[in-house]
DNA sequence: TCAATATAATTAGCTGGCTAATTATTTGAT
DNA sequence: ATCAAATAATTAGCCAGCTAATTATATTGA
């Protein structure tokens, strides 16, 4: 019933939603939805081909959800699926050359927005905010497991 | 490029997602998805019938997105759409009696989870976190309007 | 060894967001 | 008083997440 509890709950609903909407809006001119852009960016940051497993984990979605995004990106020539040599079940997802070029631009747009949203903040207060959010995340991981 | 900026961006992605997933899981036994539960809860909190407009704003979705949810809730006897008397375009959304009963239970589940996730936090640090998140939200509202 | 189990990717089908366009009604400006 | 613009709800169609089930391959244990 605490007022603070209610406030933080509402902010955690609203802030990421607004952030995502802004990013979507700015990336639309490049022809990417936020979902597909995330994939290109994570691959670019990784600097090497990733298994779908790993990529899905970094993007924060289920492997099954990634399949359709990869289909689209592959059809448009942004990624290729490469047989893994050790494990014939697995495929490594590679950025094409043109995708590597582009990912730098996309990253700049995302970082510019990040700066607009965060630059005015007091660094000490931001640190505290990060600490609190990390504690909430840890509590959520605890809560997943019923008390055994 | 700041490390803090990157961290808070990732946490703002992950924390609400984890929270929502937990809530979904706990409300599933009641037969509601999180989307439909939000509607019942906001109506319950309002304490009076709301226009779809107002309800959508409180839930944080577009009025058009609310239509399908209301169709489902109406079909299952949780809400009714009532012609507004002043404005014949508008409808007021009312909870049925059985929905009013239930909304208390749903609220308890949600509040219990909120407590699990937030109770261990330092109140002062939580306040700082709220302040920072509110500043980010304000910056996002600024960012929507191009520099005129 | 080889049968059971686990794992990587996929497919199918559901849920729930969004925007754009439509319909009915109201408001506002001349 | 009337016509143009705004507004409330809706519909249609897209995108993108999820879980459950499927297929192919790897791993493990009796």
Automatic annotation (TrEMBL), chains A, B:
Q: Which InterPro entries match?
A: HTH_MarR-typ, WH-like_DNA-bd_sf, WH_DNA-bd_sf
Report domain HTH marR-type positions.
5-138
Question: Which top-level group of life is the source organism from?
Answer: Bacteria
Name listed for the protein in its UniProt record? MarR family transcriptional regulator
Q: Which UniProt keywords apply?
A: DNA-binding, Transcription, Transcription regulation
Signal peptide region: none
Establish whether keyword DNA-binding is in the entry: yes
Q: Specify the species.
A: Aquitalea aquatica
Q: Which GO terms describe its molecular function?
A: DNA binding; DNA-binding transcription factor activity
